[in-house]
Write a structure and sequence with these properties.
Length: about 180
């Protein structure tokens, strides 16, 4: 048995489809307008016009906590053949201690623990310090060993920071020096 469809029923899918397209276009336009509005409002300002930024950023392996030991022949004989190395070196490393003074005032001090399950990875430090633009005395101290007193590396510098300038404080292990870039 066939049922004849009238003309209105056959036009309904076309009208519904047109409304779907129109609704979808309106939603996309509204979404684009919101994205466009947030692209220029609110205004993002990285730093105040009279400020500069000092970034303390590095990743460094501290010194080993214990010295390597030479294994005796008796100790080596007790080990399986694949583990018989003449030196036994503990993996654990010292935490890295870093301090930064700006104009004679301690601005940041951090004790960065070594990463890894065995505490044998690099210690990472990242800190942002906003300062007034102009001349500053910067003292950076770094300790990467387990020795008692004092720091292993020190750097004192006079810098002239322009407004919105970023000064990066890093450690170069190849040169064994604290760098200011």
């Amino acid at each position: 048995m066939r049922v004849a469809l009238d003309d209105r029923a056959s036009d309904a899918p076309e009208v519904t489809s047109a409304f779907k397209w129109l609704g979808q276009a309106l939603l996309y336009a509204a979404f684009a307008a919101v994205i466009g509005m947030f692209s220029w409002r609110p205004v993002y300002q990285h730093l105040a016009p009279d400020r500069a930024l000092i970034k303390l950023s590095f990743s460094h392996h501290g010194q080993r906590l214990a010295e390597c030991q030479t294994m005796s022949a008796e100790e080596l004989a007790k080990l399986p053949p694949n583990m018989r190395t003449p030196l036994r070196c503990p993996r654990e490393r010292s935490p890295v201690i870093v301090e930064i003074d700006i104009d004679g005032v301690l601005a940041h001090r951090e004790v960065a623990e070594p990463s890894g399950v065995s505490r044998d990875g690099a210690a990472s430090v990242y800190e942002r310090l906003e300062v007034d633009a102009g001349a500053h005395q910067i003292a950076v101290r770094l300790k990467d060993s387990a020795r008692g007193e004092g720091f292993d590396y020190e750097r004192l510098a006079s810098v002239e920071l322009r407004p919105a300038q970023v000064l990066v404080v890093d450690f170069d292990p190849e040169q064994g020096d604290i760098t200011l870039q």
